[in-house]
Structure formats: C-alpha cells, structure tokens
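Q: What structure does this chain adopt?
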Amino acid sequence: MSASRSMVVRFDGAKELEEAFNALALGAQKKVFRPALRAGGKVILTAIRARVPRRTGNLGKAIKLRASRRSRKQIGVAVFVDKAVLAPRKQPKNPKPGAREGWHPAHVELGYVRKTKKGTFHIPPRSFIRAGFDAVKEQALQAIVAEVGRRMDLIYVKPKAAASLDEGGD
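A:
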C-alpha cells in the first residue's frame, strides 16, 4: 500500500480569528480559500511539470490544475493528468490476442514489467508526481497561508475592496 499524496489544510489559531472567519458568509469564505488553494496548487503543478521526463512534451502538457467538484462542505483543487490531452494511440488493425494498451503516465510514475521473447524486463519507475509533491509541499502550504492572510486583510481592513477580491489577480 502506498502513502497518500494529498494535503489537508486546517487553520487553527486564536479564537478571535476563528470567530471572525466563521462570521463570514459561506460565499466570502470560498472567495478566500479557493484562490488560496489554487495558489498552492500552482506551486505543486510547477514542480511536477519540471520533473516530467521529456520525450515529446505531451505528458507535461497533460498535467492540469482544476477545482474539485462542488460541495457544500469542502473546497479543493486537484493536480492531475488529463486523459483527453493524452489521447490513446491508434490501435493496430490486427491486435494480438490478449494485448492491452497501458496508460503511459502510470507506467512512467510507477514502472512496469515488459515481457518479450528474450525474457522479462523490469522498467524502473521515474516518479515525477510523488517527487514533485514531496519537494514543494511546504512551499505550497506557505503560498496558501500567504494568500489567505492577504485576502482576510482585504476583507477586514478594506471592506470595500473585498467586493472585488476576484479582480485582485489570483
């Protein structure tokens, strides 16, 4: 079993800060956290793309950052490999019986075993997703905290500017 490569961010602090944040409407909370999570996700995305093995460049282009599914209870972003960008290669006209087409990003990340007439070969993993995440998770957390602080300051110090949080450049 492998370790999970996700990050859960919880902000604990002074009671006053927690009460002030809970006093915000749900929409305002999302205006604070969604861009902050996106800022942290961009740090992770950049690190992963920098570690992708380059042959054609398609794998690096397929790594995306998107908001998670909408939910009333949580806000999130995900860095993932978009299957639509990595369209499967054209299947041969007469495929061999039992032949399966593997998924390239998983083969690169996890490695695989290739069986040939000459024997079995183990292709070692070239972990770019795990290595990228592990290398910059602290920096991503710092980016999230900085963006939350900046947006909370805008709400409480300049309430009129809080109406234009989305235009602040995230």
